[in-house]
Predict the 3D structure of the following.
Amino acid sequence: MNLNTKTTRIAPEEIDRQRAFCAQIRARNSARAAQPLAFVDTYGCQQNEADSERLRGYLAEMGYAFTSDEHEADVILINTCAIREHAEHRVLGNVGALVHTKRAKPGQIICVCGCMAQEPHVAQKIKDSFRQVDLVFGPHALWKFPELFYRVYTRRGRVFEITDEPGSIAEGIPVVRQNGIKAWVSIMYGCNNFCTYCIVPYVRGRERSRDPEVILSEIRALVDEGYRDITLLGQNVNSYGKDLGLGVDFSDLLEQAAAIPGDFLLRFMTSHPKDASQKLFDVMGRCEKVAPHFHLPFQSGSTRVLEAMNRRYTREGYLEKVRALRAAVPDVVITSDVIVGFPGETQAEFEETLSLIEEVRFDALFTFIYSPRRGTPAAGMDDPMSKEDKAANFQRLAARQDEISEERHAAYVGRTVRCLVDGEDGKGLTARTPGNRLVRLEGDRSLIGRFVEIRMTGSNKWSLTGEPVKD
Ligand code: 5AD
Ligand code: SF4
Protein backbone atom coordinates (compact mmCIF):
# COMPACT_ATOMS: atom_id res chain seq x y z
CA MET A 1 0.00 0.00 0.00
CA ASN A 2 1.19 3.47 -0.82
CA LEU A 3 1.51 5.68 2.26
CA ASN A 4 2.96 8.59 0.35
CA THR A 5 1.02 11.71 1.31
CA LYS A 6 1.90 13.78 -1.72
CA THR A 7 -1.20 14.82 -3.68
CA THR A 8 -0.96 15.00 -7.43
CA ARG A 9 -3.09 17.69 -9.03
CA ILE A 10 -4.13 16.51 -12.46
CA ALA A 11 -3.28 19.23 -14.99
CA PRO A 12 -6.25 20.79 -16.84
CA GLU A 13 -4.65 19.72 -20.14
CA GLU A 14 -4.88 16.11 -18.96
CA ILE A 15 -8.63 16.46 -18.48
CA ASP A 16 -8.84 18.13 -21.91
CA ARG A 17 -7.03 15.08 -23.29
CA GLN A 18 -9.61 12.81 -21.62
CA ARG A 19 -12.44 14.86 -23.10
CA ALA A 20 -10.84 14.49 -26.51
CA PHE A 21 -11.23 10.71 -26.07
CA CYS A 22 -14.90 11.36 -25.26
CA ALA A 23 -15.24 13.34 -28.49
CA GLN A 24 -13.72 10.50 -30.53
CA ILE A 25 -16.09 7.98 -29.03
CA ARG A 26 -18.98 10.38 -29.54
CA ALA A 27 -18.14 10.68 -33.24
CA ARG A 28 -18.30 6.91 -33.62
CA ASN A 29 -21.45 6.62 -31.51
CA SER A 30 -23.25 9.24 -33.58
CA ALA A 31 -22.76 7.07 -36.66
CA ARG A 32 -24.94 4.38 -35.07
CA ALA A 33 -28.58 3.94 -36.01
CA ALA A 34 -29.86 4.61 -32.48
CA GLN A 35 -28.34 6.52 -29.59
CA PRO A 36 -26.43 3.97 -27.46
CA LEU A 37 -27.36 3.49 -23.82
CA ALA A 38 -25.34 3.24 -20.61
CA PHE A 39 -26.39 1.81 -17.26
CA VAL A 40 -24.49 3.10 -14.22
CA ASP A 41 -25.20 1.00 -11.14
CA THR A 42 -23.93 2.50 -7.88
CA TYR A 43 -23.37 0.73 -4.55
CA GLY A 44 -22.33 2.15 -1.20
CA CYS A 45 -21.93 5.67 0.08
CA GLN A 46 -22.60 9.18 -1.23
CA GLN A 47 -18.98 9.47 -2.30
CA ASN A 48 -19.68 6.71 -4.78
CA GLU A 49 -22.87 8.48 -5.88
CA ALA A 50 -20.81 11.60 -6.48
CA ASP A 51 -18.22 9.59 -8.44
CA SER A 52 -21.00 8.08 -10.55
CA GLU A 53 -22.20 11.58 -11.41
CA ARG A 54 -18.77 12.30 -12.89
CA LEU A 55 -18.69 8.97 -14.73
CA ARG A 56 -22.12 9.82 -16.17
CA GLY A 57 -20.72 13.20 -17.15
CA TYR A 58 -18.01 11.52 -19.18
CA LEU A 59 -20.45 8.98 -20.66
CA ALA A 60 -22.84 11.75 -21.72
CA GLU A 61 -19.95 13.46 -23.50
CA MET A 62 -19.30 10.18 -25.28
CA GLY A 63 -22.84 10.36 -26.64
CA TYR A 64 -24.58 7.87 -24.34
CA ALA A 65 -28.09 8.25 -22.99
CA PHE A 66 -28.96 6.44 -19.76
CA THR A 67 -31.07 3.43 -18.86
CA SER A 68 -31.60 1.37 -15.75
CA ASP A 69 -32.14 -1.85 -17.68
CA GLU A 70 -28.99 -3.93 -18.06
CA HIS A 71 -30.53 -5.90 -20.93
CA GLU A 72 -30.75 -2.93 -23.27
CA ALA A 73 -27.54 -1.20 -22.15
CA ASP A 74 -24.60 -0.99 -24.54
CA VAL A 75 -22.35 -0.11 -21.60
CA ILE A 76 -22.73 -1.31 -18.02
CA LEU A 77 -20.67 0.41 -15.35
CA ILE A 78 -20.78 -1.02 -11.84
CA ASN A 79 -19.46 1.34 -9.19
CA THR A 80 -18.70 -0.92 -6.23
CA CYS A 81 -18.40 -0.66 -2.45
CA ALA A 82 -15.92 -2.60 -0.30
CA ILE A 83 -17.01 -1.53 3.17
CA ARG A 84 -18.53 -4.88 4.22
CA GLU A 85 -18.43 -8.41 2.94
CA HIS A 86 -22.17 -8.45 2.32
CA ALA A 87 -21.87 -5.54 -0.15
CA GLU A 88 -19.04 -7.32 -1.95
CA HIS A 89 -21.02 -10.55 -2.29
CA ARG A 90 -23.97 -8.71 -3.76
CA VAL A 91 -21.77 -6.99 -6.32
CA LEU A 92 -19.99 -10.18 -7.33
CA GLY A 93 -23.34 -11.97 -7.65
CA ASN A 94 -24.64 -9.25 -9.92
CA VAL A 95 -21.47 -9.07 -12.00
CA GLY A 96 -21.61 -12.86 -12.36
CA ALA A 97 -25.17 -12.69 -13.70
CA LEU A 98 -24.10 -10.27 -16.44
CA VAL A 99 -22.65 -13.21 -18.32
CA HIS A 100 -26.20 -13.84 -19.55
CA THR A 101 -26.95 -10.25 -20.56
CA LYS A 102 -23.73 -10.11 -22.51
CA ARG A 103 -24.49 -13.39 -24.24
CA ALA A 104 -27.84 -11.96 -25.32
CA LYS A 105 -26.24 -8.71 -26.43
CA PRO A 106 -22.75 -9.37 -27.79
CA GLY A 107 -20.67 -6.21 -27.96
CA GLN A 108 -21.97 -5.01 -24.62
CA ILE A 109 -19.11 -3.42 -22.66
CA ILE A 110 -18.97 -4.23 -18.94
CA CYS A 111 -16.91 -2.10 -16.56
CA VAL A 112 -16.31 -2.51 -12.82
CA CYS A 113 -14.96 0.43 -10.84
CA GLY A 114 -15.00 1.81 -7.31
CA CYS A 115 -13.54 0.58 -4.05
CA MET A 116 -13.70 -3.18 -4.70
CA ALA A 117 -11.81 -2.71 -7.94
CA GLN A 118 -8.97 -1.17 -5.94
CA GLU A 119 -8.54 -4.36 -3.85
CA PRO A 120 -5.90 -6.51 -5.54
CA HIS A 121 -7.54 -9.85 -4.69
CA VAL A 122 -10.88 -8.71 -6.13
CA ALA A 123 -9.30 -7.43 -9.35
CA GLN A 124 -7.50 -10.76 -9.67
CA LYS A 125 -10.72 -12.69 -9.14
CA ILE A 126 -12.48 -10.68 -11.84
CA LYS A 127 -9.57 -11.22 -14.19
CA ASP A 128 -9.63 -14.99 -13.66
CA SER A 129 -13.29 -15.81 -13.17
CA PHE A 130 -15.43 -13.06 -14.72
CA ARG A 131 -14.36 -13.05 -18.34
CA GLN A 132 -17.40 -10.97 -19.33
CA VAL A 133 -15.86 -7.92 -17.62
CA ASP A 134 -13.91 -5.74 -20.04
CA LEU A 135 -12.61 -2.91 -17.86
CA VAL A 136 -11.66 -2.68 -14.18
CA PHE A 137 -10.40 0.53 -12.59
CA GLY A 138 -10.18 1.87 -9.04
CA PRO A 139 -11.14 5.30 -7.64
CA HIS A 140 -7.63 6.63 -8.31
CA ALA A 141 -8.12 6.15 -12.05
CA LEU A 142 -11.60 7.68 -12.35
CA TRP A 143 -10.34 10.84 -14.02
CA LYS A 144 -8.88 8.81 -16.89
CA PHE A 145 -11.96 6.69 -17.53
CA PRO A 146 -12.35 8.00 -21.14
CA GLU A 147 -8.85 6.90 -22.09
CA LEU A 148 -9.30 3.44 -20.53
CA PHE A 149 -12.75 3.08 -22.04
CA TYR A 150 -11.45 4.08 -25.46
CA ARG A 151 -9.02 1.16 -25.37
CA VAL A 152 -11.86 -1.25 -24.68
CA TYR A 153 -14.22 0.45 -27.12
CA THR A 154 -11.75 0.07 -29.94
CA ARG A 155 -11.43 -3.61 -28.93
CA ARG A 156 -7.91 -3.63 -27.71
CA GLY A 157 -8.58 -6.37 -25.16
CA ARG A 158 -9.45 -6.27 -21.47
CA VAL A 159 -8.07 -3.40 -19.38
CA PHE A 160 -7.16 -3.51 -15.66
CA GLU A 161 -6.06 -0.23 -14.12
CA ILE A 162 -5.64 -0.49 -10.37
CA THR A 163 -2.30 1.20 -9.75
CA ASP A 164 -1.71 2.00 -6.11
CA GLU A 165 -1.35 5.77 -6.09
CA PRO A 166 -1.31 8.14 -3.13
CA GLY A 167 -4.26 9.92 -4.68
CA SER A 168 -4.91 12.84 -6.93
CA ILE A 169 -7.32 15.72 -7.38
CA ALA A 170 -8.83 16.31 -10.78
CA GLU A 171 -10.97 19.38 -11.52
CA GLY A 172 -13.06 20.00 -14.61
CA ILE A 173 -14.58 16.54 -15.08
CA PRO A 174 -18.11 16.95 -16.50
CA VAL A 175 -20.96 16.00 -14.17
CA VAL A 176 -24.46 14.68 -14.84
CA ARG A 177 -26.52 14.97 -11.68
CA GLN A 178 -29.47 12.64 -11.14
CA ASN A 179 -31.73 15.16 -9.59
CA GLY A 180 -32.20 18.91 -9.94
CA ILE A 181 -32.92 19.57 -6.26
CA LYS A 182 -30.21 17.89 -4.21
CA ALA A 183 -26.51 17.85 -5.05
CA TRP A 184 -23.39 16.27 -3.56
CA VAL A 185 -20.19 18.26 -3.60
CA SER A 186 -17.00 16.41 -2.70
CA ILE A 187 -14.76 18.74 -0.75
CA MET A 188 -12.02 16.20 -0.12
CA TYR A 189 -11.07 12.64 -0.92
CA GLY A 190 -9.49 9.81 1.05
CA CYS A 191 -8.93 9.22 4.74
CA ASN A 192 -5.92 9.26 7.09
CA ASN A 193 -7.55 7.75 10.14
CA PHE A 194 -6.98 4.04 9.75
CA CYS A 195 -9.72 2.85 12.06
CA THR A 196 -8.62 -0.76 12.48
CA TYR A 197 -11.78 -2.28 10.93
CA CYS A 198 -11.96 -0.03 7.90
CA ILE A 199 -10.86 -0.61 4.31
CA VAL A 200 -11.42 2.97 3.11
CA PRO A 201 -7.91 4.39 3.64
CA TYR A 202 -6.49 1.46 1.66
CA VAL A 203 -8.74 1.86 -1.34
CA ARG A 204 -9.27 5.62 -1.42
CA GLY A 205 -5.82 6.82 -0.42
CA ARG A 206 -4.74 9.71 1.77
CA GLU A 207 -6.74 12.81 2.64
CA ARG A 208 -6.59 15.53 0.04
CA SER A 209 -8.69 18.67 -0.07
CA ARG A 210 -10.07 20.53 -3.05
CA ASP A 211 -9.30 24.20 -3.34
CA PRO A 212 -11.84 26.28 -1.35
CA GLU A 213 -12.42 28.75 -4.18
CA VAL A 214 -13.21 25.95 -6.62
CA ILE A 215 -15.66 24.42 -4.13
CA LEU A 216 -17.36 27.75 -3.45
CA SER A 217 -17.80 28.52 -7.13
CA GLU A 218 -19.28 25.05 -7.68
CA ILE A 219 -21.79 25.71 -4.89
CA ARG A 220 -22.62 29.15 -6.32
CA ALA A 221 -23.29 27.58 -9.71
CA LEU A 222 -25.51 24.90 -8.15
CA VAL A 223 -27.55 27.50 -6.29
CA ASP A 224 -27.93 29.49 -9.53
CA GLU A 225 -29.16 26.35 -11.26
CA GLY A 226 -31.85 25.97 -8.60
CA TYR A 227 -30.40 23.30 -6.30
CA ARG A 228 -31.91 23.60 -2.85
CA ASP A 229 -30.07 21.03 -0.76
CA ILE A 230 -26.31 20.73 -1.06
CA THR A 231 -24.24 18.19 0.86
CA LEU A 232 -20.52 18.70 1.31
CA LEU A 233 -18.88 15.31 1.20
CA GLY A 234 -15.74 13.78 2.57
CA GLN A 235 -14.74 10.70 4.53
CA ASN A 236 -13.91 13.04 7.42
CA VAL A 237 -14.91 16.58 6.52
CA ASN A 238 -13.55 17.89 9.81
CA SER A 239 -9.99 17.54 8.61
CA TYR A 240 -10.72 19.56 5.46
CA GLY A 241 -7.93 21.96 4.54
CA LYS A 242 -5.20 20.56 6.78
CA ASP A 243 -3.21 19.51 3.73
CA LEU A 244 -3.65 22.83 1.92
CA GLY A 245 -1.93 25.15 4.36
CA LEU A 246 -4.23 28.05 3.38
CA GLY A 247 -5.53 28.66 6.89
CA VAL A 248 -9.04 27.60 5.82
CA ASP A 249 -10.55 24.80 7.91
CA PHE A 250 -13.91 23.08 7.50
CA SER A 251 -15.79 25.56 9.70
CA ASP A 252 -14.45 28.43 7.61
CA LEU A 253 -15.44 26.74 4.37
CA LEU A 254 -18.92 26.02 5.70
CA GLU A 255 -19.40 29.58 6.88
CA GLN A 256 -18.28 30.96 3.52
CA ALA A 257 -20.61 28.58 1.69
CA ALA A 258 -23.48 29.64 3.94
CA ALA A 259 -22.85 33.27 2.97
CA ILE A 260 -23.69 32.54 -0.69
CA PRO A 261 -26.99 34.30 -1.53
CA GLY A 262 -30.02 32.13 -2.31
CA ASP A 263 -32.63 29.91 -0.70
CA PHE A 264 -30.84 26.63 -0.01
CA LEU A 265 -29.63 24.37 2.79
CA LEU A 266 -26.14 23.04 3.35
CA ARG A 267 -25.37 19.65 4.83
CA PHE A 268 -22.16 17.72 5.33
CA MET A 269 -20.97 14.21 5.98
CA THR A 270 -19.14 12.49 7.55
CA SER A 271 -17.61 13.88 10.73
CA HIS A 272 -15.12 12.13 12.96
CA PRO A 273 -15.84 12.89 16.63
CA LYS A 274 -12.17 13.44 17.45
CA ASP A 275 -12.11 16.43 15.07
CA ALA A 276 -15.62 17.81 15.55
CA SER A 277 -14.86 21.21 17.06
CA GLN A 278 -16.67 23.81 19.11
CA LYS A 279 -15.89 26.23 16.27
CA LEU A 280 -17.90 24.04 13.89
CA PHE A 281 -20.81 23.74 16.35
CA ASP A 282 -20.84 27.53 16.68
CA VAL A 283 -20.88 28.04 12.89
CA MET A 284 -23.83 25.65 12.68
CA GLY A 285 -25.59 27.50 15.46
CA ARG A 286 -25.27 30.88 13.82
CA CYS A 287 -25.66 30.07 10.08
CA GLU A 288 -29.29 29.57 9.13
CA LYS A 289 -28.40 27.89 5.87
CA VAL A 290 -26.50 25.11 7.61
CA ALA A 291 -29.06 22.39 8.25
CA PRO A 292 -29.33 21.36 11.91
CA HIS A 293 -28.28 17.79 11.21
CA PHE A 294 -25.09 16.17 12.43
CA HIS A 295 -24.06 12.66 11.44
CA LEU A 296 -21.52 11.73 14.10
CA PRO A 297 -20.56 8.03 14.04
CA PHE A 298 -19.67 6.71 17.50
CA GLN A 299 -18.95 3.05 16.49
CA SER A 300 -18.89 1.77 20.10
CA GLY A 301 -19.96 2.87 23.57
CA SER A 302 -16.93 1.25 25.20
CA THR A 303 -13.70 3.18 25.62
CA ARG A 304 -11.70 -0.07 25.51
CA VAL A 305 -13.25 -1.05 22.17
CA LEU A 306 -12.83 2.49 20.79
CA GLU A 307 -9.14 2.22 21.56
CA ALA A 308 -8.90 -1.14 19.79
CA MET A 309 -10.67 0.49 16.83
CA ASN A 310 -8.07 3.31 16.86
CA ARG A 311 -10.84 5.91 17.10
CA ARG A 312 -8.86 8.24 19.38
CA TYR A 313 -11.75 9.40 21.60
CA THR A 314 -13.39 7.94 24.68
CA ARG A 315 -17.03 7.28 25.51
CA GLU A 316 -16.99 10.34 27.79
CA GLY A 317 -15.29 12.43 25.11
CA TYR A 318 -18.02 11.50 22.64
CA LEU A 319 -20.81 12.31 25.08
CA GLU A 320 -19.14 15.62 25.83
CA LYS A 321 -19.17 16.52 22.08
CA VAL A 322 -22.87 15.68 21.90
CA ARG A 323 -23.59 17.95 24.88
CA ALA A 324 -21.59 20.80 23.32
CA LEU A 325 -23.34 20.32 19.97
CA ARG A 326 -26.79 20.36 21.54
CA ALA A 327 -25.93 23.47 23.54
CA ALA A 328 -24.79 25.30 20.36
CA VAL A 329 -27.52 24.01 18.02
CA PRO A 330 -30.80 23.52 19.86
CA ASP A 331 -33.06 20.92 18.21
CA VAL A 332 -30.17 19.48 16.21
CA VAL A 333 -30.89 16.07 14.71
CA ILE A 334 -28.06 13.68 15.53
CA THR A 335 -27.57 10.44 13.63
CA SER A 336 -24.78 7.93 13.97
CA ASP A 337 -23.10 4.69 12.89
CA VAL A 338 -22.28 1.80 15.21
CA ILE A 339 -20.56 -1.54 14.82
CA VAL A 340 -21.70 -4.59 16.79
CA GLY A 341 -19.34 -7.51 17.36
CA PHE A 342 -15.96 -5.86 16.81
CA PRO A 343 -13.30 -8.56 17.50
CA GLY A 344 -12.95 -9.07 21.25
CA GLU A 345 -16.02 -7.00 22.17
CA THR A 346 -17.41 -8.57 25.34
CA GLN A 347 -21.05 -8.73 26.37
CA ALA A 348 -20.41 -6.04 28.99
CA GLU A 349 -18.86 -3.79 26.34
CA PHE A 350 -21.86 -4.30 24.07
CA GLU A 351 -24.08 -3.23 27.00
CA GLU A 352 -22.09 0.02 27.07
CA THR A 353 -23.09 0.62 23.45
CA LEU A 354 -26.71 0.07 24.41
CA SER A 355 -26.44 2.47 27.31
CA LEU A 356 -24.84 5.09 25.06
CA ILE A 357 -27.78 5.08 22.65
CA GLU A 358 -30.06 5.35 25.69
CA GLU A 359 -28.13 8.38 26.88
CA VAL A 360 -27.87 10.19 23.53
CA ARG A 361 -31.21 9.15 22.01
CA PHE A 362 -30.15 9.46 18.36
CA ASP A 363 -32.81 10.38 15.83
CA ALA A 364 -31.61 7.54 13.63
CA LEU A 365 -28.81 5.01 13.79
CA PHE A 366 -27.09 2.91 11.15
CA THR A 367 -26.19 -0.39 12.81
CA PHE A 368 -23.66 -2.79 11.31
CA ILE A 369 -22.34 -6.18 12.31
CA TYR A 370 -18.56 -6.21 12.15
CA SER A 371 -17.30 -7.59 8.85
CA PRO A 372 -13.61 -8.55 8.57
CA ARG A 373 -11.83 -6.75 5.71
CA ARG A 374 -8.69 -8.30 4.29
CA GLY A 375 -5.54 -6.30 5.04
CA THR A 376 -7.00 -4.32 7.96
CA PRO A 377 -5.55 -4.80 11.48
CA ALA A 378 -8.87 -5.93 13.01
CA ALA A 379 -9.13 -8.83 10.57
CA GLY A 380 -6.21 -10.43 12.43
CA MET A 381 -7.59 -9.90 15.96
CA ASP A 382 -9.04 -12.64 18.17
CA ASP A 383 -12.78 -12.81 17.71
CA PRO A 384 -14.22 -15.23 20.25
CA MET A 385 -17.91 -14.19 20.30
CA SER A 386 -20.15 -16.47 18.22
CA LYS A 387 -22.03 -15.24 15.16
CA GLU A 388 -25.32 -16.05 16.90
CA ASP A 389 -24.47 -13.97 19.98
CA LYS A 390 -23.46 -11.05 17.77
CA ALA A 391 -26.68 -11.35 15.79
CA ALA A 392 -28.71 -11.39 19.01
CA ASN A 393 -26.94 -8.24 20.22
CA PHE A 394 -27.49 -6.59 16.87
CA GLN A 395 -31.23 -7.34 17.05
CA ARG A 396 -31.50 -5.96 20.58
CA LEU A 397 -29.72 -2.76 19.61
CA ALA A 398 -31.77 -2.26 16.45
CA ALA A 399 -35.04 -2.95 18.29
CA ARG A 400 -34.23 -0.46 21.03
CA GLN A 401 -33.20 2.18 18.49
CA ASP A 402 -36.45 1.64 16.58
CA GLU A 403 -38.36 2.54 19.73
CA ILE A 404 -36.23 5.64 20.28
CA SER A 405 -36.62 6.74 16.64
CA GLU A 406 -40.36 6.25 16.91
CA GLU A 407 -40.55 8.34 20.08
CA ARG A 408 -38.43 11.07 18.53
CA HIS A 409 -40.62 11.17 15.44
CA ALA A 410 -43.79 11.26 17.52
CA ALA A 411 -42.56 14.49 19.12
CA TYR A 412 -42.93 16.26 15.75
CA VAL A 413 -46.66 15.64 15.51
CA GLY A 414 -48.60 18.90 15.75
CA ARG A 415 -45.58 21.02 14.80
CA THR A 416 -45.26 22.98 11.55
CA VAL A 417 -41.87 22.68 9.91
CA ARG A 418 -40.43 24.24 6.75
CA CYS A 419 -39.44 21.27 4.61
CA LEU A 420 -38.01 20.77 1.16
CA VAL A 421 -40.33 18.71 -1.06
CA ASP A 422 -37.78 16.58 -2.88
CA GLY A 423 -39.68 14.05 -4.95
CA GLU A 424 -42.39 11.44 -5.11
CA ASP A 425 -42.65 7.70 -4.89
CA GLY A 426 -45.45 5.17 -5.12
CA LYS A 427 -46.94 6.49 -1.88
CA GLY A 428 -47.09 10.21 -2.76
CA LEU A 429 -44.80 13.20 -2.31
CA THR A 430 -41.71 13.09 -0.12
CA ALA A 431 -40.06 15.92 1.76
CA ARG A 432 -37.22 16.39 4.22
CA THR A 433 -37.16 18.36 7.42
CA PRO A 434 -34.09 20.56 7.95
CA GLY A 435 -32.79 17.71 10.13
CA ASN A 436 -33.25 15.37 7.14
CA ARG A 437 -36.15 13.34 8.54
CA LEU A 438 -38.37 11.88 5.82
CA VAL A 439 -41.89 13.36 5.54
CA ARG A 440 -44.67 11.88 3.43
CA LEU A 441 -47.44 14.13 2.22
CA GLU A 442 -50.23 14.39 -0.29
CA GLY A 443 -50.08 17.31 -2.61
CA ASP A 444 -49.56 18.58 -6.06
CA ARG A 445 -46.40 17.68 -7.99
CA SER A 446 -45.77 21.39 -8.51
CA LEU A 447 -44.55 21.49 -4.90
CA ILE A 448 -41.48 19.41 -5.81
CA GLY A 449 -38.34 21.49 -5.46
CA ARG A 450 -39.96 24.02 -3.10
CA PHE A 451 -39.62 24.72 0.59
CA VAL A 452 -43.09 24.29 2.07
CA GLU A 453 -44.52 24.75 5.57
CA ILE A 454 -45.77 21.31 6.56
CA ARG A 455 -47.93 20.52 9.57
CA MET A 456 -47.00 17.11 10.97
CA THR A 457 -49.99 14.87 11.48
CA GLY A 458 -48.52 11.42 12.06
CA SER A 459 -45.34 9.41 12.50
CA ASN A 460 -43.79 5.98 12.72
CA LYS A 461 -40.25 4.76 13.30
CA TRP A 462 -39.11 5.55 9.76
CA SER A 463 -40.90 8.74 8.81
CA LEU A 464 -43.41 11.51 9.46
CA THR A 465 -46.62 12.32 7.65
CA GLY A 466 -47.86 15.82 7.16
CA GLU A 467 -49.89 18.25 5.12
CA PRO A 468 -48.92 21.52 3.47
CA VAL A 469 -50.15 24.54 5.41
CA LYS A 470 -52.35 26.72 3.19
CA ASP A 471 -51.29 30.34 3.17
N1 5AD B 1 -17.56 -3.87 9.35
C1 5AD B 1 -18.75 -3.33 9.71
N2 5AD B 1 -19.03 -2.04 9.57
C2 5AD B 1 -18.08 -1.23 9.06
N3 5AD B 1 -18.07 0.10 8.82
C3 5AD B 1 -16.88 0.42 8.28
N4 5AD B 1 -16.10 -0.67 8.18
C4 5AD B 1 -16.83 -1.72 8.66
C5 5AD B 1 -16.58 -3.10 8.83
N5 5AD B 1 -15.41 -3.64 8.49
C6 5AD B 1 -19.20 0.97 9.13
C7 5AD B 1 -18.79 2.08 10.11
C8 5AD B 1 -18.77 3.30 9.23
C9 5AD B 1 -19.85 2.97 8.21
C10 5AD B 1 -19.81 3.76 6.96
O1 5AD B 1 -19.64 1.60 7.96
O2 5AD B 1 -19.81 2.19 11.08
O3 5AD B 1 -19.04 4.49 9.93
FE1 SF4 C 1 -12.96 4.37 7.72
FE2 SF4 C 1 -12.35 5.52 10.08
FE3 SF4 C 1 -11.70 6.76 7.76
FE4 SF4 C 1 -14.28 6.58 8.48
S1 SF4 C 1 -12.65 7.69 9.62
S2 SF4 C 1 -13.42 6.16 6.43
S3 SF4 C 1 -14.35 4.60 9.52
S4 SF4 C 1 -10.87 4.80 8.52
Q: What stands out?
A: The chain has a mean pLDDT of 95. The longest strand covers residues 416-425. Residues 179-291 form a domain with the Transcription Regulator spoIIAA fold (CATH 3.30.750.210). The chain is about 35% helix and 20% strand.
